[in-house]
Each structure stands twice: as structure tokens, then as C-alpha cells.
Automatic annotation (TrEMBL):
It comes from Pontibacter lucknowensis. One of its GO terms (molecular function) is oxidoreductase activity. It holds the Pfam family adh_short_C2. PANTHER family: DEHYDROGENASES, SHORT CHAIN, ESTRADIOL 17-BETA-DEHYDROGENASE 8-RELATED. This is NAD(P)-dependent dehydrogenase, short-chain alcohol dehydrogenase family. The keyword Oxidoreductase applies. PROSITE patterns: ADH_SHORT (PS00061). Belongs to the short-chain dehydrogenases/reductases (SDR) family. Keywords: Oxidoreductase. InterPro entries: NAD(P)-bd_dom_sf (IPR036291), Sc_DH/Rdtase_CS (IPR020904), SDR_fam (IPR002347).
Length: 269
């Protein structure tokens, strides 16, 4: 896939949950475009592995171990960003967990609700709170924030009620905050990806067949029947849309949701 080239030279860019999937692809493209990239994730070994895949020139990408369901590690993350870089130009809130999927709403327990909302909603809210504070200090340069949601957040999904609810909520957070900080030149948008070839999608497939690997191809074929383009996307395709939203090419776009799903949602609207 040929990538459009953007110039993010000397921009400080945070990508949460960037040790795999869409987050990693986004970090790779940002680094390739000249940004100072901050990679986060819960597992240091995976973080170091992710760093090794990022191109570097004069700006070395860094990994900061962060658990998006843990308030203290989020505060520590932004304290380190402030002390180390003194600014934040781009933030991609991608960190998520597969909590809140795999069974109907009435079978979830309260602790499962807390788990699903912790990483997939509260963690995003806390990150946005700190990102906006940093960017407000940079007025008039501002910054760009992208929340990575899901097409499930646009209309819900059977066997994924809590996950879908969290993703719907981070869309609403972005739309609300975008109106609050627009005059400070801070743009906040959402990317709603459909099926992309990521570890989380694989787990979603497996959850529908109780882990029976032999039945996963059947689930994938069922997904493909709902997608006009008849294929699962590469994470780089979502990353390309994220970079566009962060770039000057999208300078008059804020509070919007960009859907990258191969046309699936077009069949439902």
C-alpha cells in the first residue's frame, strides 16, 4: 500500500497502546514522517520489540510503560512527557482491551463492567484530560488528538455490549471536548475502524467460537459477507487515516468521526 507522505518533523507524538495492531502501525508512520514518537503499552518486552520496528533519524522513539486502566501510570506518563519533551503536538488514544465482549449483556458481572470501562473509557478520558492541558499551554500552536473507537461504537454489537458502550462514549467525549477547545487550535477527532488484521480482532473471532481455532475461518467469512470490499484491512490503512486527521490537511476538521471499514457501515445506514 502506497502511503501519502506527511511532514511531522520535530512534532512530539504520543500513541497509546502502540505495541501492536493499529497503534503500532500509527507509531511507525509517525516516526517515518519525522515525529518524535512516544510508544506506550503494559508489557515492556513488547514495547522494546515495537521500538525496534520504528525508523529513527535524529529523533529516537521512546517507550514508556503504561497501563491505561491504571490512573497512576497515566499520570506518570504525562509527567514524564512534560519533563522530557516539554510539549505534546499529537496524541492518538488507541489503548484498549478486549474486555466487555464474548457474552450477552445480562451475563456480565459488575466487576467486568468496571474492567471494560476502565481501560476503554476512563483511561481515554484521563489521557484526553492531560493531553488537552498540555496543548492549552502551547496556544496558539495547539495540537491534534485522535481517539480510536470502533464501528461497534456507532451502533452496538451483539455479544459486545460493554465494549461497544465504551467506544460510543469516547466518540461523545471527543465531540464534546472538540467544541470546548476549538478556539485554542486543538482539534479532536475520532477514527472508527472496522475489521483490521490485529491481535484484538483475532481474539474477537476466537471469543465467538469458544477458542476453537478450527472454526475461526467460518467467523471470518461471516464478517467478510458484511464488508463490501470483501477483505480484512491492514492496520496501516487505519494508521494512514489517523495521520491525515493529525496533519494540516485536516486543519478545518474537528469533532468528527472518520469511519474506515471497507463500506460495512454504509450497508446499515
Amino acid at each position: 500500500m502506497e502511503q501519502v507522505q506527511y511532514n511531522f518533523q520535530d512534532k512530539v507524538a504520543l500513541v497509546t497502546g502502540s505495541t501492536s495492531g493499529i497503534g503500532l502501525a500509527t507509531a511507525q508512520l509517525l516516526a517515518k514522517s519525522g515525529a518524535q514518537v512516544i510508544v506506550t503499552g503494559r508489557d515492556k518486552e513488547r514495547g522494546d520489540t515495537a521500538l525496534a520496528t520504528l525508523p529513527s533519524s535524529t529523533l529516537q522513539p521512546v517507550y514508556i510503560q503504561t497501563d491505561n486502566s491504571n490512573n497512576d501510570t497515566i499520570f506518570a506518563l504525562f509527567h514524564e512527557i512534560q519533563n522530557r519533551f516539554g510539549r505534546l503536538d499529537i496524541a492518538v488514544n488507541n489503548a484498549a482491551q478486549e474486555s466487555g465482549i464474548g457474552k450477552p449483556l445480562h451475563e456480565f458481572e459488575p466487576h467486568e463492567y468496571e474492567d471494560a470501562m476502565g481501560a476503554n473509557l476512563r483511561g481515554v478520558w484521563l489521557c484526553m484530560k492531560q493531553e488537552i492541558k498540555l496543548m492549552l499551554e502551547q496556544k496558539p500552536s495547539g495540537g491534534a488528538i485522535v481517539n480510536v473507537a470502533s464501528v461497534n461504537g456507532l451502533g452496538g454489537a451483539a455479544m459486545g455490549s460493554l465494549y461497544s458502550a465504551a467506544k460510543a462514549a469516547i466518540i461523545a467525549l471527543a465531540k464534546s471536548a472538540a467544541q470546548e477547545v476549538a478556539t485554542a487550535n486543538i482539534r479532536i477527532n475520532v477514527l472508527a475502524p472496522g475489521a483490521h488484521r490485529t491481535p484484538m480482532l483475532q481474539k474477537a473471532f476466537e471469543s465467538q467460537v469458544n477458542g476453537d481455532q478450527t472454526k475461526v475461518p467460518e467467523i471470518e467469512q461471516m464478517y467478510l459477507s458484511y464488508i463490501p470490499q470483501k477483505r480484512i484491512a491492514d492496520p496501516q490503512e487505519a494508521a494512514a487515516a489517523i495521520l491525515w486527521l493529525c496533519s494540516d490537511a485536516a486543519s478545518y476538521i474537528t469533532g468528527q468521526t472518520t469511519i474506515v471499514d471497507g463500506g460495512m457501515s454504509a450497508m446499515l445506514r
